[in-house]
Specification:
Chain lengths: ~280, ~850
């Protein structure tokens, strides 16, 4: 693998840069029934308030997105009719006409939020998860544009950044995270990445065998070129392109763009300086 | 269900309303099972299915009837020796029916015995040939106003006639074949709006997955029951599953998904007016039920497991009345109330509205939102003298007098409402101990995690207090009520800070105990009819071991029947009639579907489950002609609750609307009945035509759309436990209707717009959710649009919305007295309600 993480997919598929002992989520959308028990269990365990977005008309999604007070969010994508209004009755084996995906913080192997945080509030825990320490966060908001998935958000109440902690307090007590505990169909599975990743690749192979040609793992080193992120500790089995679920096809760390940005700024500045000097000389 | 090879979910939105149970469907799917969802809407259940069949709400019986017809005409079914053996040995296919019987096909849509003036059937002509006189349990005419127990046939010594060749035109098999002959794929297209090729795909999947080594399961919920033909729809499915050999076998069956925690428990130990605990019939003033002797003679079938009824009834009376119940006074049978009219919930609403009923206890129910014709339901509440509402939030049924839409509009003034409302705070599940009985009759106990706050109390506490205080209040009263209360045993010790009654004592009473020493009895077989045992609910007997261990607390699971997990009544059996999982000679039908079998060496039934058969009855046992009870059941007859031991394809007694399932249109329908144009609706359906409960005529152009109501994962029933909870309220924050893009376009409705839906009962406004998950259907050459509306919402709590049940009408299934809420007609327009609250113009 090269330094920028752009390895050939054939070598990277099913691999992750997760450190030994890292834990995370495998969220298998082909088992999701859209019950939102994960959203409720998360809010209940973590004491998060309702968002009160109101009726949106976006299918059955009335919490819209991950945010400071919504750390699990179930996306609903209706595909029951094609553009001509024709509806299928024979369905691909798993969840083809109404996609549901429980989204969550990805706990990236190289986390943009952590790298951008100037106060050290965002840390990597002993479980290899990424957690914002609320007593250190000063609410600067640098982590927000640094996340390629739009996960952390500032709370309107305490003006600090919040996101999924992967139930750090539960992990300390040897309990699985609340969302995984509540999931009735084991769509959300918690465990060691070293065990979850092979399970995900086996699942994809089994799904393809059963005719779900579009199944793939989102969040290993290969998929979508998680450039520089080197894998997600919360990864997904998906059956449609990432954009369908409002996920970036090629998530990038903004930090990777700083050197070219710095260079281009420097060049521009130099050019301006030269132009200014030239102009002043011309006036003389 | 995890053992099924094909799961058909119909009349249910299982993934949304039973998400935890749906994990077993997902397990079956992981093992390769085909999942089929037949439903008007594409729901979260459909999303996980392999085939979704959109059909017109109210046409289920046509679809099922066509499956029956497809099966009996199929070549493989006719020659497969498994189907034929199951049919001949385990069902009543070969039994002959009396020659007086006439089918709907002969009489233009009614069966013989119909009385058009009283709108009911005399079932005498439906009996088996060779059966003398009226059936036990069907003495005289079944009253329209009450329900008795009626599923027994014949008197002692009766030998029904048979034709083992199944060729006699009066044998059950020929009758049903003829009855369903017109239920073709073309009829399915005409009545359900389902293309023939889609129907055939489903039929073939079911047939392919029913065999010696394969099983298909059906799961349904209230979208089958809530029709005027609900019982017949379910009966048709049972008939189909019997034909396919899918009853009594692992991965088979007809599963009733129960919609609330322990709603199964509340029919077992019933909150129903016509039943005593354990499905014993309530004494009825219109039947020969005057004395205990009369009642037992009338209700005890001579043959089958239910012959033990006297032990159950006498033990129940001993549990109720203790020492006061003696053989000399008929065990205080005279103190039991005798019903003589319809006291179903619909009938109660009308009695309240008309002033006949003065008071109501409302616990775990929210009729101001959940009652059918909820406008009328609120008028009924407003006409009471007193109303007690126990709930965890101030639900609409407690707040209607100052907050209902008609009060907000000014149509009703609070000072004119005389009802005195007592709102009492209730404990939540975690704040009380108790049991849940679920779909598979599995009783699971749960402990209290924390004491309830403040004055909140459990139902057990409230009812214990009520009983204690009523007894005190009526002490010394020698009238019937005073005698009744004085005789009641009511001595539950209390415990803990909340002084809840000790529920172990209640469980012991339910299980049954020996009167002499109070020790729990070991099971149903130990109950006696001489007053030496007491038992609160005979079917639960065995839930407590003789040393007082409550088996509902057991938590040992395994990959088979999990007999160590909870307690499934009766006798911890997980699959009823599981003798049918072995062939007539007692061998498993196949290794793959092995469940219960005859161990010839040891001379007993054994297997993964508790055998639902006398343990030592040999498969070749033939009863002598004068045998009674279980001795009258042959060794190859698994259905031991039936007098003949057979699964009934033809219901010779027990049903009020016919011995074979027949399609009738809902009371309100946009289309004619394609089978019987002269008989559009069920001739035995219970209707309440009156000015405050008007029905739409068939095809009324003002109300062209089919409306169906349902629930969402995010909310619970009428919302009392969910719409006030912020985390649930935000997930579905507002009432809405689901419309197809085609229907929305006709009215210029955009997604999210306000729309008004109305009927002659009322009008409600809601937001439009325009989605291709609903689709117009072509029914009989006509386009039928369907509108879906969740019925959770009301005017209280955080998540509010128009009350869907303001639109529905009171109408009932004659067998179950369940309301029709899954198919009626309505009008739709863009925009909000007008100021008068009128929907239609």
């Amino acid at each position: 693998m090269s330094a920028d993480g752009s390895a050939a997919p054939s070598h990277a598929a099913g691999t992750t840069g997760a450190r030994p002992g890292a834990v995370g989520f495998l969220t298998d959308t082909t088992l999701c029934i859209g019950c939102k028990a994960c959203e409720v269990a998360c809010k209940q365990w973590n004491g998060l308030p309702m968002d009160d977005v109101g009726f949106t008309g976006f299918s059955y999604d009335n919490t819209v997105d991950l945010g400071a007070t919504t750390w699990r969010h179930v996306a609903f994508v209706e595909r029951a009719g094609d553009e001509a209004g024709v509806r299928a009755t024979a369905l691909a084996p798993f969840q083809s006409a109404w996609l549901m995906m429980s989204d969550v913080c990805k706990h990236c192997v190289h986390a943009g939020c952590l790298e951008a945080c100037p106060t050290g509030a965002i840390i990597r825990t002993e479980f290899d998860t990424v957690v914002i320490q609320q007593d250190v966060c000063n609410g600067c908001g640098y982590c927000i544009p640094a996340c390629p998935f739009g996960v952390p958000q500032l709370s309107a109440t305490d003006r600090k950044a919040h996101k999924c902690t992967l139930c750090y307090d539960r992990l300390r007590d040897d309990l699985e995270p609340a969302c995984a505990k509540a999931c009735p169909t084991d769509s959300i599975q918690f465990g060691l990445i070293a065990e979850l990743m092979p399970r995900a690749t086996e699942r994809v192979a089994a799904l393809r065998e059963r005719g779900v040609d579009g199944a793939y793992v989102y969040g290993d080193r290969a998929v979508g070129g998680t450039h520089g992120i080197d894998g997600l500790n919360a990864f997904f089995v998906l059956t449609a392109p990432p954009e369908t679920y409002n996920l970036p096809a090629a998530p990038e760390l903004p930090q990777d763009k700083t050197l070219p940005a710095f260079l281009s700024t420097a060049v521009a500045a130099l050019g301006l300086c030269l132009a200014a000097v030239a102009a002043l000389r011309g006036r003389r | 269900m995890a053992d099924s090879d094909c799961v058909v979910i119909m009349g249910s939105n299982m993934a949304e309303n039973h998400p935890v149970g749906f994990r077993f469907v997902m397990k079956a799917k992981e093992r390769g099972a085909t999942i089929i969802h037949v439903d008007p809407r594409f729901s979260r259940t459909s999303a996980l299915a392999d085939i979704h069949v959109p059909l017109r709400a109210g046409s289920d019986l046509v679809f099922l009837g066509a499956l029956v017809n497809h099966v009996v005409l199929s070549e493989r079914w006719g020659r497969d020796e498994f189907f034929q053996a199951y049919l001949r040995h385990y069902t009543n296919a070969a039994t002959l029916v009396t020659s007086e019987y006439r089918d709907t096909e002969d009489l233009g849509g009614v069966f013989s015995g119909y009385d058009p003036d009283r709108r009911w059937y005399d079932p005498t002509s439906w009996r088996y040939a060779g059966q003398r006189g009226p059936s036990a349990g069907t003495g005289g005419h079944p009253s329209q106003d009450a329900m008795g127990r009626t599923e027994h046939v014949g008197q002692q010594g009766d030998i029904p006639h048979h034709d083992e060749t199944l060729r006699d035109p009066t044998c059950v098999f020929q009758l049903l074949k003829r009855h369903f002959a017109r239920y073709t794929p073309e009829l399915v297209e005409d009545a359900c709006g389902v293309p023939p090729e889609l129907f055939l795909r489903v039929a073939e999947a079911i047939l392919r997955n029913s065999a010696r080594d394969r099983t298909t399961a059906f799961a349904y919920a209230v979208a089958w029951t809530q029709h005027t033909t609900g019982t017949q729809i379910i009966g048709c499915c049972a008939l189909l599953q019997l034909l396919l050999g899918n009853i009594g076998r692992p991965g088979g069956g007809v599963l009733a998904l129960r919609g609330h925690a322990t709603i199964q428990g509340s029919t077992d130990i019933p909150t129903l007016y016509n039943l005593l605990p354990g499905y014993l019939p309530m004494p009825n003033a219109t039947q020969r039920h005057g004395t205990l002797r009369d009642y037992l003679e009338q209700e005890t079938p001579p043959k089958g497991a239910l012959h033990a009824l006297p032990s159950a009834v006498v033990s129940l009376l001993k549990a109720y009345y203790g020492d006061a119940a003696t053989p000399e006074n008929g065990f205080c049978y005279d103190l039991l109330p005798k019903i003589g009219a319809d006291y179903s919930f619909q009938a109660m609403l009308l009695m309240m509205k008309d002033g006949a009923m003065k008071g109501l206890f409302c616990m775990g129910q929210n009729p101001a939102v959940g009652g059918q014709n909820a406008v009328l339901a609120r008028q009924a509440l407003a006409n009471l003298d007193w109303l007690v509402v126990r709930d965890v939030h101030e639900i609409e049924s407690a707040a209607f007098w100052y907050d209902a839409p008609e009060v907000r509009r000014g149509d009703v003034r609070p000072e004119r409402i005389k009802t005195e409302v007592f709102f009492l705070p209730a404990a939540l599940p975690g704040e009380k101990e108790g049991s849940f009985t679920n779909t598979q009759r599995l009783v699971q106990y749960h402990d209290k995690a924390i004491d309830p706050p403040g004055d909140c109390r459990s139902e057990a506490w409230f009812l214990d207090q009520l009983g204690t205080r009523l007894k005190r209040l009526y002490a010394g009263d020698t009238g019937p009520r005073g005698r009744q209360l004085a005789a009641l045993t009511w001595d539950y010790p209390s415990q803990g800070a909340t002084e809840d009654p000790d529920l172990d004592v209640v469980v012991r009473e339910i299980n049954g105990y020996t009167v002499a020493d109070g020790r729990p009895v070991p099971g149903i077989h130990a109950l006696a009819d001489d007053g030496s045992t007491a038992c609160g609910c005979w079917i639960y007997s065995g839930i407590m071991t003789e040393d007082g261990t409550n088996l509902a607390r057991a938590r040992r699971g395994d990959d088979r029947a999990s007999l160590g997990w909870g307690f499934a009544w009766p006798a911890n059996r997980r699959i009823l009639y599981n003798r049918a999982s072995a062939d007539p000679s007692g061998r498993p039908w196949s290794e793959r579907k092995r469940w219960v079998w005859w161990d010839a060496e040891r001379g007993e039934w054994t297997g993964h489950d508790v055998p639902d058969f006398p343990r030592d009855k040999s498969p070749d046992y033939q009863p002598p002609p004068d045998a009674t009870g279980l001795d009258a059941i042959a060794g190859d007859s698994p259905f031991i609750n039936m007098a003949d031991g057979k699964g009934w394809l033809f219901a010779a007694s027990g049903l009020r609307d016919g011995p074979l399932p027949t399609h009738y249109e809902p009371i309100e329908t946009p289309v004619a009945n394609p089978l019987y144009p002269e008989q559009p609706h069920s001739p035995a359906a219970i209707t309440f035509p009156r000015p405050d409960n008007r029905y739409h005529e068939m095809g009324d152009p003002r109300f062209p759309y089919v409306m169906t109501t349902y629930r969402l994962t995010e909310h619970h029933t009428a919302g009392g436990m969910s719409r006030w909870v912020p985390w649930l309220a935000e997930l579905q924050p507002q009432g809405f209707v689901e419309l197809s893009p085609e229907l929305a376009a006709e009215h210029g409705i955009a997604n999210g717009d306000w729309v008004t839906v109305s009927t002659l009962r009322g009008g409600v406004e809601a937001r439009a959710l325009v989605t291709p998950r609903l689709r117009p259907l072509s029914v009989g050459g006509k386009t039928v649009h369907q509108i879906g509306m969740p019925w959770h919402f009301g005017f209280g709590g955080i998540a509010q919305g128009g009350i869907a049940n303001d639109l529905s009408a009171l109408a009932e299934d004659p067998n179950s007295r369940i309301h029709q809420a899954k198919a009626f007609t309505c009008a739709l327009r863009k925009g909000r309600l007008d100021e008068e609250g009128r929907g239609h113009r």
